[in-house]
User: What shape does this take?
Amino acid sequence: MKVAIINGPNLNLLGKREPEVYGKQHFVDILNQIKTDFTKVDLHYFQSNIEGELIDYLQGLEGANFSGAILNAGGYSHTSIALADCVKAISTPVIGVHMSNIYAREEERHTDLLSAACKGGIYGLGAKGYEMALRSLLD
Assistant: This one.
């Protein structure tokens, strides 16, 4: 099984950015733990702060034999119709992840434009959300 983990803007700052919201763990540590726990899954990781690069990467999953994708689009979840349209357009199942509970935060974060396009979503469970998303793709 081949799965992509895709992170959007500012997620390269995990461990430094608002640790009271996102935790103190850097994403490389989260990814290494997932790879240790899921040795039979071929995991591919991509992060970009640029919306178009995220769209290009998602479109590239088509025809590349990916079984699924885990997408934490960060702030683009609340603003990007283009990213939502991309998730709708590809046949690769996408699970949306937010480390924080977006519904317990500022009102502008309560809208997730991607949620209707995704196969499912996990919100507010921190780094554990990535593992849960991967498990859902394995079922």
